[in-house]
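Researcher: Here's the sequence for the chain we discussed earlier.
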Amino acid sequence: MGQLTRAIGDFIAGMSFDAIPTNAVGAVKNALSDYTAVTILGRDEPVTRLIASFENVSASGESRVLFSRQRSDARAAALINGTSGHAHDYDDVGIAFHPAHPSVAIAPAIFAQAESTGASGRDLITAFVTAYEVWSELASHDEDPQHLKGWHPTGTFGAIAAAAGVAKLLRLDAEASMRAVGIAASQAAGLVANFGTMTKPFHAGAAASAGLMSARYAQARMTASPDIFEHKNGFLQAVSPHGKVDAERPAHFGKTWHIVDHGVSVKLYPMCYGTHRILSTLTPWAKDNDLKADDIAAVSFRTGPSRVIPLVHTNPKSALDAKFSAEFAVAMAVIARRATLAELNDNFVNRTDVRTLMGKVTRDLDPERDRPSFTSEADDDLLFTMRDGSSRVLKLQAPRDQAISLDRETLWEKFLDCTSGALEKDAAKKLFDTLQSLETLDNIANLPASSINRAAAE
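Model: Thanks. This is the structure I predict for it:
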């Protein structure tokens, strides 16, 4: 039996709400509020409609779909909601060791399971922290981010974490919890090559659905390897970019809290998080210095190669492509001097001035600039060469968007913006306020259900 796999099973079985640091509870409520907003936002995206069309969505079922009055079985709800939540790539990021999208893989699974069994808000928060800690702990045992090998950690680690969270809700013992994560490990999937396509958001939905069912299968006594994370042909070695896995190091459960130390970052821009250093630094700088696109001769984005792996499009032709483009981020920040949903459309991406400035941006990649986390301070900058021969260097700073410290008003503004096309303001506020006091909710089934305008499930 593997030491790490056993530690994970023991942690899941022994985890309780009272063990969670107080500030972590606030971070989880912010993360779940944000997840809800972006899930509702993605309700009409083509990929959400497509996935929903294959499922039995009606007025009855275990769990709600898209936080509407429509329902389905828990597996389908997790699949649809996870896909919708990631459809705009506006959902949160985290996991310092292998940057990914934690909430959109974890939350759909635990919401669906919690609703089906009448779990409380405290139970949901406990399940989220359990899942996040298992994800982070596993990731910390490999030196290299999975992106380097082409894996999308949201899909790979996400399935395992979702299984851990649902196992907690099902109150599985240590042995059954080990089986749950072991089953999920064989369903871990997602490739970076699919970034910028409908399949990327499907990674999140598939992970949530696989995790939920893995825990249920484990409850029904389906077996799995008891050393799934230590085995030479197990999960960590199989997905590791360079095999620098230390599965023998004791787990840090209970000694440190990853959700506090590394946390969840709530996206303030509807773009891949790899662009957020550019957007959060360049947007105000361009405005303050009255930077004009016509005055720029060239821009060099100087960063580390691992930081641009998710930024797969250097010459985007559509809004979906543009979400994964540093070149577009530079052009949007300079020309629009903001980065909102309004700019994420094909017309803006293909404007002459936008395309011209994108063509002036090049990437100067230096391995020495790499750091293990998108949220850590890094030696990244933009070198502007102006038409008059002068040059300017802008050092890029990490965004100030941590869920553990994000102010409520900023979160509410994003929540309202994401849900404005689906909910009346009063209904949005009621849902937001309930999520912000989630620990007081006796039954997740009592979370306000809304008559969402034109939900994909209708």
